[in-house]
Amino acid sequence: MIYALLRPLLRQLDAEDAHRLAILSLKAWPMGGTARCDGPLATRVAGLDFPNPLGIAAGFDKDAEVPDALLGVGFGFAEVGSITPLPQSGNPRPRLFRLDEDRGVINRMGFNNGGAEAAVARLVRRAGRPGIVGINVGANKDSVDRVADYATMARLMAPLASYLAVNISSPNTPGLRALQDEGALTGLLDAVLAARGRHGPPVFLKVAPDLEPADIDAIARIAIDRQLGALIVSNTTISRPRLASRHSGEVGGLSGAPLRDLAQQRLRDFRKATGGAIPLVGVGGVATAEDAWARIRAGASLVQLYSAMAFAGPGIARTITRGLARLMKRDGFTTIAEAVGSE
To answer: Which regions in the chain score pLDDT beneath 50?
Structure first.
Protein backbone atom coordinates (compact mmCIF):
# COMPACT_ATOMS: atom_id res chain seq x y z
CA MET A 1 0.00 0.00 0.00
CA ILE A 2 1.09 3.60 -0.59
CA TYR A 3 1.38 4.22 3.15
CA ALA A 4 3.92 1.44 3.54
CA LEU A 5 6.14 3.17 0.99
CA LEU A 6 5.66 6.60 2.55
CA ARG A 7 6.02 5.58 6.19
CA PRO A 8 9.83 5.90 6.46
CA LEU A 9 9.59 9.41 5.02
CA LEU A 10 6.69 10.37 7.23
CA ARG A 11 8.59 9.33 10.37
CA GLN A 12 11.42 11.73 9.44
CA LEU A 13 9.11 14.72 9.02
CA ASP A 14 7.70 17.11 11.56
CA ALA A 15 4.38 15.64 12.70
CA GLU A 16 2.30 18.38 11.08
CA ASP A 17 4.21 18.15 7.78
CA ALA A 18 3.69 14.38 7.83
CA HIS A 19 -0.02 14.90 8.35
CA ARG A 20 -0.18 17.27 5.39
CA LEU A 21 1.61 14.72 3.21
CA ALA A 22 -0.92 12.10 4.26
CA ILE A 23 -3.77 14.37 3.14
CA LEU A 24 -2.05 15.07 -0.18
CA SER A 25 -1.55 11.33 -0.70
CA LEU A 26 -5.25 10.67 -0.20
CA LYS A 27 -6.06 13.50 -2.62
CA ALA A 28 -3.68 12.13 -5.24
CA TRP A 29 -4.85 8.52 -4.96
CA PRO A 30 -8.47 8.73 -3.85
CA MET A 31 -10.06 5.36 -3.26
CA GLY A 32 -13.67 6.09 -4.15
CA GLY A 33 -16.76 4.21 -3.18
CA THR A 34 -18.33 3.32 0.12
CA ALA A 35 -19.56 0.03 1.51
CA ARG A 36 -23.19 -0.99 1.21
CA CYS A 37 -25.31 -0.70 4.34
CA ASP A 38 -26.46 -4.30 4.33
CA GLY A 39 -23.39 -6.15 5.64
CA PRO A 40 -22.96 -7.74 9.09
CA LEU A 41 -21.53 -4.54 10.59
CA ALA A 42 -24.23 -2.21 9.25
CA THR A 43 -26.01 -0.20 11.92
CA ARG A 44 -28.54 2.61 12.18
CA VAL A 45 -27.88 5.55 14.50
CA ALA A 46 -29.72 8.88 14.74
CA GLY A 47 -31.74 7.96 11.66
CA LEU A 48 -28.60 7.39 9.57
CA ASP A 49 -27.51 4.11 8.01
CA PHE A 50 -23.81 3.30 8.54
CA PRO A 51 -22.09 0.46 6.63
CA ASN A 52 -19.93 -0.14 9.70
CA PRO A 53 -19.58 1.61 13.08
CA LEU A 54 -15.97 2.83 12.66
CA GLY A 55 -15.39 6.45 11.72
CA ILE A 56 -12.49 8.84 11.34
CA ALA A 57 -12.68 11.54 14.00
CA ALA A 58 -12.56 15.27 13.38
CA GLY A 59 -9.08 16.76 13.21
CA PHE A 60 -7.69 14.56 10.47
CA ASP A 61 -9.52 16.18 7.55
CA LYS A 62 -9.92 19.68 8.94
CA ASP A 63 -10.88 21.32 5.65
CA ALA A 64 -13.09 18.61 4.14
CA GLU A 65 -10.52 17.77 1.46
CA VAL A 66 -10.69 13.96 1.44
CA PRO A 67 -13.90 12.61 3.01
CA ASP A 68 -14.65 10.30 0.09
CA ALA A 69 -11.12 8.90 0.06
CA LEU A 70 -11.49 8.12 3.77
CA LEU A 71 -14.76 6.32 3.12
CA GLY A 72 -13.01 4.48 0.32
CA VAL A 73 -10.30 3.05 2.59
CA GLY A 74 -12.94 1.43 4.78
CA PHE A 75 -14.28 3.89 7.32
CA GLY A 76 -18.02 3.70 7.85
CA PHE A 77 -18.23 7.47 8.18
CA ALA A 78 -15.97 10.51 8.05
CA GLU A 79 -16.20 13.54 10.30
CA VAL A 80 -14.52 16.62 8.81
CA GLY A 81 -13.45 19.79 10.64
CA SER A 82 -13.42 21.50 13.00
CA ILE A 83 -14.47 24.31 10.67
CA THR A 84 -14.96 27.89 11.87
CA PRO A 85 -16.81 30.75 10.19
CA LEU A 86 -13.63 32.62 9.26
CA PRO A 87 -10.23 31.18 8.29
CA GLN A 88 -7.72 31.07 11.11
CA SER A 89 -4.10 29.99 11.31
CA GLY A 90 -4.33 28.41 14.76
CA ASN A 91 -1.58 28.41 17.34
CA PRO A 92 2.13 28.89 16.52
CA ARG A 93 4.13 25.89 15.31
CA PRO A 94 5.31 23.43 16.44
CA ARG A 95 1.91 22.40 17.74
CA LEU A 96 1.61 18.68 16.94
CA PHE A 97 3.85 16.11 18.65
CA ARG A 98 4.11 12.34 18.18
CA LEU A 99 4.75 10.44 21.40
CA ASP A 100 6.22 7.36 19.76
CA GLU A 101 7.11 5.55 22.97
CA ASP A 102 3.59 6.05 24.29
CA ARG A 103 1.68 5.57 21.01
CA GLY A 104 0.10 8.93 21.66
CA VAL A 105 -0.13 12.47 20.31
CA ILE A 106 -0.21 15.91 21.91
CA ASN A 107 -1.70 18.73 19.87
CA ARG A 108 -2.39 22.40 20.43
CA MET A 109 -3.54 23.17 16.90
CA GLY A 110 -6.16 25.77 17.83
CA PHE A 111 -8.85 25.13 15.19
CA ASN A 112 -6.57 25.94 12.25
CA ASN A 113 -8.66 25.72 9.07
CA GLY A 114 -9.49 27.58 5.89
CA GLY A 115 -12.91 28.73 7.06
CA ALA A 116 -16.50 28.05 6.13
CA GLU A 117 -16.53 29.51 2.62
CA ALA A 118 -13.75 27.24 1.34
CA ALA A 119 -15.21 24.17 3.05
CA VAL A 120 -18.68 24.83 1.66
CA ALA A 121 -17.25 25.01 -1.87
CA ARG A 122 -15.66 21.58 -1.44
CA LEU A 123 -18.69 20.00 0.17
CA VAL A 124 -21.04 21.33 -2.49
CA ARG A 125 -18.95 19.50 -5.10
CA ARG A 126 -19.50 16.17 -3.33
CA ALA A 127 -23.24 16.71 -2.83
CA GLY A 128 -25.25 13.67 -3.85
CA ARG A 129 -22.45 11.16 -3.34
CA PRO A 130 -23.14 8.22 -1.00
CA GLY A 131 -21.59 7.91 2.43
CA ILE A 132 -21.98 9.48 5.86
CA VAL A 133 -19.99 12.72 6.22
CA GLY A 134 -20.40 14.60 9.48
CA ILE A 135 -19.28 18.22 9.78
CA ASN A 136 -17.63 19.29 13.03
CA VAL A 137 -18.13 23.00 13.71
CA GLY A 138 -16.36 25.42 16.01
CA ALA A 139 -16.03 29.09 16.89
CA ASN A 140 -13.26 31.48 15.92
CA LYS A 141 -10.73 32.15 18.67
CA ASP A 142 -11.22 35.93 18.57
CA SER A 143 -15.01 35.85 18.13
CA VAL A 144 -16.97 38.30 20.27
CA ASP A 145 -20.00 35.97 20.15
CA ARG A 146 -19.14 32.30 20.02
CA VAL A 147 -22.74 31.16 20.21
CA ALA A 148 -23.43 33.19 17.07
CA ASP A 149 -20.46 31.49 15.40
CA TYR A 150 -21.91 28.04 16.10
CA ALA A 151 -25.34 29.14 14.88
CA THR A 152 -23.80 30.50 11.68
CA MET A 153 -21.97 27.24 11.07
CA ALA A 154 -25.11 25.20 11.70
CA ARG A 155 -27.04 27.27 9.16
CA LEU A 156 -24.29 27.02 6.52
CA MET A 157 -23.44 23.36 6.97
CA ALA A 158 -26.86 21.81 7.64
CA PRO A 159 -27.69 21.35 3.93
CA LEU A 160 -24.34 19.61 3.34
CA ALA A 161 -23.93 17.44 6.45
CA SER A 162 -25.11 13.95 7.28
CA TYR A 163 -24.84 15.19 10.86
CA LEU A 164 -23.50 18.29 12.60
CA ALA A 165 -20.97 17.83 15.41
CA VAL A 166 -20.81 20.72 17.88
CA ASN A 167 -17.28 20.84 19.27
CA ILE A 168 -17.07 22.65 22.60
CA SER A 169 -14.42 20.38 24.06
CA SER A 170 -11.12 21.34 22.46
CA PRO A 171 -8.62 22.45 25.12
CA ASN A 172 -6.71 24.59 22.62
CA THR A 173 -9.13 27.52 22.25
CA PRO A 174 -9.15 29.53 25.51
CA GLY A 175 -12.52 29.48 27.25
CA LEU A 176 -14.16 27.08 24.81
CA ARG A 177 -14.74 24.32 27.34
CA ALA A 178 -16.72 26.77 29.49
CA LEU A 179 -19.54 26.21 26.99
CA GLN A 180 -19.98 22.78 28.59
CA ASP A 181 -21.42 24.50 31.68
CA GLU A 182 -25.14 23.82 32.03
CA GLY A 183 -26.48 27.33 31.37
CA ALA A 184 -24.10 28.09 28.54
CA LEU A 185 -24.69 24.72 26.91
CA THR A 186 -28.46 25.11 26.94
CA GLY A 187 -28.24 28.47 25.19
CA LEU A 188 -25.72 27.21 22.68
CA LEU A 189 -27.71 24.13 21.69
CA ASP A 190 -30.94 26.10 21.40
CA ALA A 191 -29.20 28.49 19.00
CA VAL A 192 -27.68 25.66 16.96
CA LEU A 193 -30.92 23.71 16.72
CA ALA A 194 -32.84 26.81 15.65
CA ALA A 195 -30.23 27.64 12.99
CA ARG A 196 -30.20 24.05 11.71
CA GLY A 197 -33.94 24.15 11.10
CA ARG A 198 -36.68 21.63 11.85
CA HIS A 199 -35.73 19.28 9.04
CA GLY A 200 -31.95 19.58 9.29
CA PRO A 201 -29.48 16.78 10.06
CA PRO A 202 -29.06 15.35 13.57
CA VAL A 203 -26.82 17.28 15.95
CA PHE A 204 -24.05 15.47 17.83
CA LEU A 205 -22.28 17.08 20.80
CA LYS A 206 -18.57 16.40 21.41
CA VAL A 207 -17.53 16.54 25.07
CA ALA A 208 -14.26 16.51 26.97
CA PRO A 209 -13.05 13.61 29.12
CA ASP A 210 -12.04 16.02 31.90
CA LEU A 211 -15.51 16.37 33.45
CA GLU A 212 -16.84 16.13 36.98
CA PRO A 213 -19.78 13.82 37.78
CA ALA A 214 -22.16 16.79 38.06
CA ASP A 215 -21.09 17.98 34.59
CA ILE A 216 -21.77 14.57 33.11
CA ASP A 217 -25.26 14.43 34.61
CA ALA A 218 -26.10 17.94 33.40
CA ILE A 219 -24.83 17.33 29.86
CA ALA A 220 -26.71 14.03 29.67
CA ARG A 221 -29.93 15.69 30.84
CA ILE A 222 -29.63 18.54 28.34
CA ALA A 223 -28.74 16.19 25.47
CA ILE A 224 -31.80 14.05 26.12
CA ASP A 225 -34.07 17.06 26.59
CA ARG A 226 -32.89 18.64 23.32
CA GLN A 227 -33.16 15.27 21.52
CA LEU A 228 -29.61 15.36 20.20
CA GLY A 229 -28.56 12.70 17.73
CA ALA A 230 -25.62 11.51 19.82
CA LEU A 231 -22.89 12.43 22.30
CA ILE A 232 -19.29 12.03 21.14
CA VAL A 233 -17.23 10.86 24.12
CA SER A 234 -14.58 12.18 24.16
CA ASN A 235 -12.08 14.79 22.95
CA THR A 236 -8.43 15.00 24.03
CA THR A 237 -7.44 15.32 27.69
CA ILE A 238 -5.42 17.97 29.50
CA SER A 239 -4.53 15.41 32.17
CA ARG A 240 -1.16 13.66 32.03
CA PRO A 241 -0.68 10.02 33.00
CA ARG A 242 2.88 8.74 33.24
CA LEU A 243 4.48 9.17 29.80
CA ALA A 244 7.86 8.11 28.41
CA SER A 245 8.23 10.43 25.41
CA ARG A 246 10.50 13.47 25.42
CA HIS A 247 7.47 15.48 24.27
CA SER A 248 5.39 14.53 27.33
CA GLY A 249 5.65 18.02 28.82
CA GLU A 250 4.18 19.81 25.81
CA VAL A 251 1.03 21.85 26.39
CA GLY A 252 -2.10 20.70 24.56
CA GLY A 253 -4.60 17.88 24.34
CA LEU A 254 -3.34 14.32 24.75
CA SER A 255 -4.79 11.56 22.57
CA GLY A 256 -3.91 8.04 21.50
CA ALA A 257 -3.16 5.07 23.73
CA PRO A 258 -2.63 7.14 26.94
CA LEU A 259 -6.22 8.41 26.65
CA ARG A 260 -7.80 4.99 26.19
CA ASP A 261 -8.70 4.10 29.79
CA LEU A 262 -10.00 7.57 30.66
CA ALA A 263 -12.12 7.75 27.50
CA GLN A 264 -13.49 4.25 28.14
CA GLN A 265 -14.49 5.20 31.68
CA ARG A 266 -16.08 8.44 30.53
CA LEU A 267 -18.12 6.47 28.00
CA ARG A 268 -19.38 4.21 30.80
CA ASP A 269 -20.21 7.30 32.86
CA PHE A 270 -22.29 8.78 30.06
CA ARG A 271 -23.99 5.45 29.39
CA LYS A 272 -25.05 5.37 33.03
CA ALA A 273 -26.08 9.03 33.06
CA THR A 274 -28.19 8.72 29.92
CA GLY A 275 -29.58 5.28 30.68
CA GLY A 276 -29.09 4.39 27.04
CA ALA A 277 -31.59 7.09 25.99
CA ILE A 278 -29.19 8.70 23.53
CA PRO A 279 -26.58 7.11 21.23
CA LEU A 280 -22.92 7.49 22.20
CA VAL A 281 -19.88 7.69 19.94
CA GLY A 282 -16.77 6.26 21.63
CA VAL A 283 -13.48 7.94 20.73
CA GLY A 284 -10.08 8.29 22.37
CA GLY A 285 -7.32 5.69 22.31
CA VAL A 286 -9.03 3.30 19.89
CA ALA A 287 -6.30 1.46 17.98
CA THR A 288 -7.46 -2.17 17.59
CA ALA A 289 -10.60 -4.17 16.94
CA GLU A 290 -10.53 -5.15 20.60
CA ASP A 291 -10.51 -1.48 21.63
CA ALA A 292 -13.45 -0.72 19.35
CA TRP A 293 -15.38 -3.77 20.53
CA ALA A 294 -14.82 -2.77 24.17
CA ARG A 295 -16.33 0.66 23.44
CA ILE A 296 -19.35 -0.92 21.78
CA ARG A 297 -19.86 -3.34 24.66
CA ALA A 298 -19.55 -0.38 27.07
CA GLY A 299 -22.32 1.52 25.30
CA ALA A 300 -21.00 3.10 22.09
CA SER A 301 -23.21 2.79 19.03
CA LEU A 302 -20.36 4.16 16.90
CA VAL A 303 -16.59 4.38 17.37
CA GLN A 304 -14.02 6.82 16.01
CA LEU A 305 -10.24 6.99 15.82
CA TYR A 306 -7.60 9.41 14.59
CA SER A 307 -4.26 9.21 16.43
CA ALA A 308 -3.91 5.48 15.77
CA MET A 309 -3.87 6.15 12.04
CA ALA A 310 -0.68 8.19 12.49
CA PHE A 311 1.04 5.00 13.62
CA ALA A 312 -0.73 2.35 11.53
CA GLY A 313 -1.78 4.18 8.35
CA PRO A 314 -5.18 4.18 6.62
CA GLY A 315 -5.22 0.38 6.37
CA ILE A 316 -6.23 0.40 10.02
CA ALA A 317 -9.87 0.89 9.01
CA ARG A 318 -10.22 -2.44 7.23
CA THR A 319 -8.10 -4.21 9.86
CA ILE A 320 -10.42 -3.07 12.62
CA THR A 321 -13.68 -3.72 10.77
CA ARG A 322 -12.54 -7.26 9.90
CA GLY A 323 -11.69 -7.77 13.55
CA LEU A 324 -15.06 -6.41 14.67
CA ALA A 325 -16.88 -8.91 12.47
CA ARG A 326 -14.83 -11.71 14.02
CA LEU A 327 -15.43 -10.52 17.60
CA MET A 328 -19.14 -10.05 17.01
CA LYS A 329 -19.43 -13.61 15.72
CA ARG A 330 -17.26 -14.97 18.57
CA ASP A 331 -19.51 -13.40 21.19
CA GLY A 332 -22.75 -14.52 19.57
CA PHE A 333 -24.14 -11.21 18.32
CA THR A 334 -25.81 -10.90 14.94
CA THR A 335 -25.87 -7.09 14.85
CA ILE A 336 -23.83 -4.22 16.28
CA ALA A 337 -26.97 -2.81 17.90
CA GLU A 338 -27.40 -6.00 19.95
CA ALA A 339 -23.90 -5.61 21.37
CA VAL A 340 -24.19 -1.97 22.43
CA GLY A 341 -23.97 -1.71 26.22
CA SER A 342 -23.84 -5.49 26.69
CA GLU A 343 -20.70 -5.65 28.85
So the answer is: none
